[in-house]
Amino acid sequence: MIKSASIRNLFLAPFTLWAILFVAIPFVVIVWYGLTNDDGAFSLSSLATITRPGYFKALMFSLLLALVSTAACILLAYPLCLTLVEKAGNTRDLLVTLCVVPLFMQSLLLTMAVQTILEKNGVLNQILRMIGLPDVYILNTPIAIVMGMVINFLPYAILPIFIALSKIDRSIIEAARDLGASPWQTFRHVQLPLSLPGAVSAITLVFIPSLTTFFISALLGGNKILLIGNIIEQAFTSAYDFHIGSALSLVLMIFVVANMFLTMKFDTTEEAG
Amino acid sequence: MSNRLKHIYVAAILTLLYAPIAVMIAQSFNASRYRGHWTGFTLDWYASLLESEEIFEALSNTLSIGLSAATIATVVGLITCLALHGMRRRTRAALMSVANIPMLNADIVTGISLMLLFLAMGLRLGYGSILLAHIVFCLPYVMLCIMPRLMTLNQNLYEAALDLGASPLQALRLVVLPELKPSIAAGFLLAFTMSADDFIITHFTKGAGIDTLPTEIYAELKLGVHPEMYALSTLVFAAVLLLVFLVYVNRRFIANIRKEELI
């Protein structure tokens, strides 16, 4: 559209500045902190702290909880989105919007509310008592943390999966049905493969925040369960050990980068070009 | 799944998503300061919300940072997309991948690395550092909204405008920008929402003595969140819901008119 290369470069200047100053250099700074000690000399000792039993366990446990919450979000979102795409235009849009509205709420307050629901004399137990069922105690357990993650991040799974499913041509699905495919077969062989890019976006949008959260685990896991996010946050805000904090962030970035490659493999934004 | 089952399923998911919001709303009308103890209905928290200076401070910080960050990110995002549009496919794809990095990165890593950068630059952590950080992480969301629309835009319209004697600037302003308006608006709104709800990046880049709504809530968590905060969130929720409802009604109205026209 812009023919003149010099105007194009002028327009690109703020972005270039942004990319160098706020994407590339911060990365260099975090690598520098992670790989040096207090004297500024090269050192792998901060990076080696990940092998400390407590830290390593926290990382493994964070990975486990993030995998469970991602799986839960995907498994909850697919049937919902499959139902929604069948609905008529207006109802469909309204329902999808309703699924997204919680994103406008402060996630700290939502997480706080989950605590109010799950605590010993919380809303859930009061309801259970009213209908004569025994209490459940899940606050301060991994289950509560996963619930908090699902409630916070489920809309991020619903949106891309819904968009991917709604882009599928209705006639393809009707063709599958006409040729005798059951709803499950239609899903398995038509809708699932065609909506895979949406699912990949959903996985990225849920997995990374789940893996790196610190306030959900702090509010719903009591002080008993430390995730890798909590350890990094404490390194910066209470222990003031920037080296260990940066080194552990570098470890996290391995998973972030792996995720980026997965996303870029399925990237579809360029197809229209 | 039978139809009945599908309805129950949709209702169950919405219940899951809205249960915490319902609790939050109930809390805003609860006479007790303490969570989970219902001691009666009150509107006191809405009255004292108007007098709470801390919340007012945090709210005005959130709004001014959100609006400034979203505005700047939208302008930069728009001109970046216009520049990228004319580039070779591979260069464009590479630059878009760079733009995606902060979005795919973990917030905690973005927050920490920006904090370390600001400290290394000798920048005092405060309002300015929060604003800068918000511009940084908002930009990719704006580009995400504008770029796909720009790529599907009919190039001939722009060329036609030039053939008819428009200057490139006029063609841009009168032909391209109107076409992009919805996606520019979407990008701005998304950026503002991201900024207003961001806790993690603000937490690391804010320094002492300044708070946005999310960090104010975080600071209050230890001693119990002020019920006024629930009142404020209930008002935000009501406003969002009203907006959704208005758009829905408006669209039905337009759809009905179209139908009548067809008949």
Terminal CA distance of chain A reads 13 Å
Based on DSSP secondary structure assignment, what is the total number of beta strands of chain A? 0
Mean pLDDT of chain A: 90
Quickly name the level 1 CATH class of the domain at 52-229 in chain A.
Mainly Alpha
Number of helices of chain A: 13
Characterize the main sheet of chain B.
none
Order of helices and strands of chain A: HHHHHHHHHHHHH
The named CATH superfamily of the largest domain in chain B: MetI-like
Shape of chain A: globular
Gyration radius of chain B, rounded: 23 Å
What features would you highlight for this structure?
heterodimer, A: 273 residues, mainly alpha, MetI-like fold, B: 263 residues, 81% helix, globular
Summarize the model shown:
The complex is a heterodimer of chains A (about 270) and B (about 260). Chain A has about 270 residues and is mainly α.
What does this structure look like?
The complex is a heterodimer of chains A (273) and B (263). With 273 residues, chain A is mainly α. Chain A has a domain at 52-229: MetI-like fold (Orthogonal Bundle). Chain A contains 13 helices and no strands. The longest helix of chain A is centred in the N-terminal third of the chain and has 34 residues, at 53-86. Chain A is globular and about 70 Å long. Chain A starts with a helix and ends in an 8-residue tail after the last helix. Chain B has 263 residues and is mainly α. Chain B has two domains: 1-52 and 227-263, no CATH class; 55-225, MetI-like fold (Orthogonal Bundle), CATH 1.10.3720.10. Chain B has helices at 3-28, 44-49, 53-85, 89-104, 107-121, 127-152, 155-163, 168-197, 200-205, 213-221, 227-262. Chain B is globular. Chains A and B meet through helix 1, helix 3, helix 4, helix 5 and helix 7 of A and helix 1, helix 3, helix 4, helix 5 and helix 6 of B.
